[in-house]
């Protein structure tokens, strides 16, 4: 009687499981790396936008007698201070859903500071990591006089800029952090 030989071609379930596990690990590493790159590019874009807004409002303060306090966002949106890609809707004073948006698609607001030649640029509803990256990107910035960081309404105030350790500790909320940069107009 002839004996059948076991086939040696093909893969065992163990070999397939190992290959799938390795492929999953590689895909996970690519996913993490791409999310870090995306976050960093959004942070760089936000930095450039904030500096553009700063220059625009500084120019407004230099050419006019400004004693504005409160919301100046729509004035800047209508005066082309904000980069065009930030404008999604016609700005309505006090309505943050119509304010210009950050690279994270969150509201950006500008307020004049009472009895001073300063103004605030605020970015709302940031994730913890976006808050850390954005606040850290202005660390030791000579233009920033004060920084407010943390969950909206429960933020921490720093004269000058916060240290990296302080930033990490204050950007504690998972999704609803707030970063405010106070700039001198001159």
How would you sum up this structure, described in words?
By secondary structure, this protein is an alpha+beta fold. The protein has one domain (13-184): TcpA-like pilin. The chain is 40% helix and 19% strand. It has helices spanning 13-63, 73-78, 128-137, 164-170; strands at residues 70-71, 108-112, 118-126, 144-151, 156-159, 177-184. It has a six-stranded antiparallel sheet. Strand 4 (144-151) and strand 5 (156-159) form a beta hairpin. Helix 1 (13-63) crosses helix 3. The longest helix has 51 residues, at 13-63. The radius of gyration is 25 Å and the shape is elongated. The termini are far apart. The mean pLDDT is 84.
List the helices and strands and how they pair.
Elements: H1 13-63, E1 70-71, H2 73-78, E2 108-112, E3 118-126, H3 128-137, E4 144-151, E5 156-159, H4 164-170, E6 177-184
Antiparallel strand pairs: 1-2, 2-3, 3-6, 4-5, 4-6
Strand content: 15-25%
The CATH superfamily appears as TcpA-like pilin
Percent range of helical residues: 25-40%
Choose one word for the global shape. elongated
- Any guess at the CATH architecture? 2-Layer Sandwich
Order of helices and strands: HEHEEHEEHE
According to DSSP, the number of beta strands is 6
Number of helices, where a helix is a run of at least 4 consecutive DSSP H or I residues: 4
For the record, the CATH class is Alpha Beta
Structural class estimated from helices and strands? alpha+beta
Please report the distance between the alpha carbons of the first and last residues. Answer: 100 Å
CATH fold type: TcpA-like pilin
- The gyration radius over C-alpha positions equals 25 Å
If you average the pLDDT, what whole number results?
A: 84
Q: How many structural domains? A: 1
Can you list the strand order of the major beta sheet?
1-2-3-6-4-5
The major β-sheet equals: 6 strands, antiparallel
Oligomer, anyone?
single chain
Q: Spans of 5+ residues with little confidence (pLDDT < 50)?
A: none
